[in-house]
Design a protein that fits this description.
The protein is mainly alpha-helical. Helices cover 58% and strands 0% of the residues. The chain has three helices and no strands. Helix 2 packs across helix 3.
Length: 85
């Protein structure tokens, strides 16, 4: 993985231990953010071979998992729908 790539599993933040108040604030924000990003819901989805092939090609091209690609598509679609209201 390249550090310039966006990844929901990795958060990079610069901090200084010199300022404990700022460090505690940053840690609190980080923990709040990670609690929202926990994946805890599962479901099964059946697709045909041609859709699986297309999904695999795109996920491979982007160097992400098929599940992550589908999550991104859903999020983008819902965000676009929400912004159009």
């Amino acid at each position: 993985m390249l550090l310039s790539e966006k990844n929901r599993l990795l958060t990079l933040k610069k901090y200084s231990i010199a300022n404990k108040k700022t460090l505690l604030h940053d840690l609190k924000l980080f923990l709040e953010k990670t609690q929202k990003k926990i994946l805890k819901y599962r479901f099964n989805m059946m697709i045909d071979q041609s859709l699986n092939d297309l999904l695999s090609q795109e996920a491979n091209r982007l160097h992400i998992s098929k599940a992550n690609y589908v999550r991104q598509l859903i999020f983008e679609k819902l965000l676009k729908s929400k912004n159009n209201k």
